[in-house]
Amino acid sequence: MKNFSKSTIYQIYPKSFCDSNGDGVGDIRGIIEKLDYIRSLGVDYIWSTPFFKSPMNDNGYDIEDYLDINPMFGNMEDVTELITEAGKRGLGIIFDMVFNHTSTEHEWFKRALAGEEKYMNYYIFRDGNADEPPTNWQSKFGGSAWEYVPSLGKWYLHLFDVTQADLNWDNPEVRNELKKVILFWKDKGVRGFRFDVVNLISKPEIFRDDEEGDGRRFYTDGPHVHEYLKELVADTGIEDMLTVGEMSSTCIDHCIRYTDPGEKELSMCFNFHHLKIDYKDGEKWELQRPDYDKLKDIFREWQLRMQEKNGWNAVFWCNHDQPRVVSRLGDEHKYWKESAKMLACSIHMLRGTPYIYQGEEIGMMNPHFDKIEDYRDVESINYYKILRESGKSKEEALHILGERSRDNSRTPMQWDNTKYAGFSEAEPWISLPEDREGVNVYDQEADEDSVLNFYRKLVKLRKEYEVIRDGSIEFIFDSVKEILAYKRVGEDGDILVLNNMSKDEVSLPQSIDMTGRKILLSNYDESRISGIDVLRPYECIVIQ
Ligand code: GLC
Question: Per-residue pLDDT tens for 413-429?
C-alpha cells in the first residue's frame, strides 16, 4: 500500500463548480476549464462527487448507471478528456463510488421490482405486511428506513432516501458487479476512489428493532465489512491507488483496521466526530455552541491512536455535506480572514492527508438563506418538515437549517465579483450568498495576503517538510481551551503549531522563546515576534 502523506486533495462538487454551457448547472467541461487553477493550488488529486447517470434526488449519490455519465454534466468523451488533461498537469482524478446503495431507477432495482429473483437478491427485501416495517430503523434523511412494495408484498431497506435502495453485499454477484465498475474506471485512467458510506455495506444477519437508537449500531462497521473491502481491493488490484472510505459514525479501532497498510483495505478514511461538536446531545438538528474542549479531545484521541497503531486519517473541515467552516468555527466579519487561515493551518499541519473543498480556499461562508424555497437538498427539505411537525416555528426551523443544511456548502463557486460570481452566465440552480465581497478567486489572486495564497503556502509546506508529512504528533497546552497546539517531531527537525480558536487574545501557559527558531507561516504580521506569550484573535503560527 502506498503512502499519501505528501498529497493534498481538492474536492469538487461538479454541480456548483463551473458552468461551461450557460444552463446554470456546473459541468465536466467547466472542471476542465479550471484545471490550471487547481494545479496552481499545488494539490495532487481531484476528487469529484458523482456525475454518473442519476435522477439526482440526492444530487448524484443516487446512481442509475455506474458506467454512464449524466448528460447534465457532459458525456464520456468529456470525462476521458478530464482524466487526460488532469494527468498532463500532474493531477490524478478520484471517482466517487456509491456502493452502499443504487438509485431505485437502476436497472437492477427495476428488475427486482418486476419480481426477478436474481435481482431481488441484489437488494435487501423482507416480507411483511403493509403497516409493519421489518424493524424500527430510521433513514438518515428522516422517516423509516423501509419502504413497502405492494406488488411484491415486501419491504426494501434504504438507509438514505427512499430512492436509494441498499445493496446486498452478502450476495457475491453484487460484489462482482461492483468490482467490474472499479475495473472499468481504472482502465480509463482514474487514479483513486472515494467509497461513499462504505462502512455501512455489511448488514447484520438478523434484523431486529433498535430499542436504543435509530438502528445504526447494527449495521455500522458491520460483521463482514473488512472482509468485503479486502476482497474488493485485492480483486481489482487497487492497493496502490489512493482510496478513501467515508465512514459514518465509525470508531477508531475500525478505522485503524481500514487503513493499516498491512490490512490492504484503504489508504485513509474520513470520520466525522470532530464535526459533531456543535450537535446538542449528538443530534444534528439541535444547535449548540461548538465545544472546543471536546474538539481537542477528539483530535488528540484520533491522532494519537491512529499514529500508535499505524492508521492514517484523511483530515478535513469541509465537504459537500458540511456547513462552511468559517461560518461554523470562525468569524464571518471582523476576523474573517484570520479565522479562515487559522482553520486551514490547524487542519493542514495535522498527521494525515488534507482535503480542501471547493471554495474553502477562498474562505467561502454559509449563504444564510431565509426561506425554505432557497433550499434544494433532500435532507434539508425533509428535516424542515420534521422540525415543523415537532412544533418548531418557521423561524426556528429556518434558523436550524441556516446552520446545518448541506446546501450551505453547495452554493456556486465564487470565481469573481460579477452577478453570478463567474460560475455561470445564467441564473444558477441554487442561489449565491448575497454578502460575498472579496470572497472570490479573482480578487484573492491579486492579493499576496489572501486566504487563497495562504492555502497555497500550506500545500507547499507539506511538500517541503518531511516533518509535516511523516513526523509524529504530540499535543501541547492542553489546559487552555481556546488553543489547539501541537508539536510535530520528524527527522528533519520539529515544528510547533499554535492555533487560537477564539476571537479573544489568549495567553500561553508558557512563553515560547524564539531564539534560534523560525516562523514558517503565520496569519499576522510576523515581524513583531521575538518571543510569544499571547496569541492574538484567531492567530496561527507554525514555528520551526
Ligand atoms: C454520503 C455523501 C452524501 C450522500 C450520502 C448517501 O454521506 O457524502 O452526500 O447523501 O452518502 O449517498
Answer: 999 999 999 999 999 99
